[in-house]
Amino acid sequence: MTTVDSSHFENIIYFSQAAYNKKSH
């Protein structure tokens, strides 16, 4: 996995968690 791929993957997780946090509030 390249650094770009891992960074992109982390961004997906970040936005997923952000959306989840919005729903919980």
- As for the number of domains, it is 1
Average the pLDDT over all residues and give the rounded result. Answer: 84
Structural class assignment: mainly alpha
Largest sheet: none
Describe this structure in words.
- The longest helix is centred in the middle third of the chain and has 22 residues, at 3-24.
- With 25 residues, the chain is mainly α.
- The protein is 88% helix and 0% strand.
- The protein has one helix spanning 3-24.
- The protein has one helix and no strands.
- The chain has one domain.
- The model has no long low-confidence stretch (mean pLDDT 84).
Name the descriptors:
25 residues; mainly alpha; 1 helix
Question: How are the elements arranged and paired?
Answer:
Elements: H1 3-24
